[in-house]
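Action item from last week, closing it out:
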Amino acid sequence: MNTYVILLRGINVGGKNSVPMAGLRTCLEELGFSNISTYIASGNVILESAKSADEIQAQIEVDLTKSFKLDSELIKVLVLTRGQLQAVIDDKPKGFGEQPENYHSDAVFLMGIDSAQAMAVFAPREGVDKVWPGDGVIYSQRLSAERTKSRLGKIVGTPAYKSMTIRSWNTTTKLLKLLEKMDDRK
């Protein structure tokens, strides 16, 4: 059995595509996954499966839209191994996420596009936003005192945004800790 982090894009956002976490856990159990846990209601799941990441991704994407009343065009699933999530954290830019009192830091996970394609839609505002490409991720940081001037929200209307899912840096690091905890119990 392998342990995976599942990032669901497009659920429980702005009152749309409502998926209760208890219902999501039940749905995933019915699909044969085990040791399922969720973290906050924004589509973060940790589970165990003998299936490959690609099989899990395809199965969840199909079943979510059958099990819940969802706009399927918004739904995407990203399946990460512990090593992949660890690499996102280990390979962060120097100092990224280390000053939460001054900066809002996010990991923008990429789904089917590369960093170069994704970076093209970002237009960071000088003195407010900073973005860095990574492997399967864009690191985005906004100066907290000026976050209303951030241009991060401008990516939402772009076609590339449909291939991204954003998690706060705090959520990203917490997911790794939960994954490690689950693996340690094995």
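Closing note: The longest strand covers residues 2-9.
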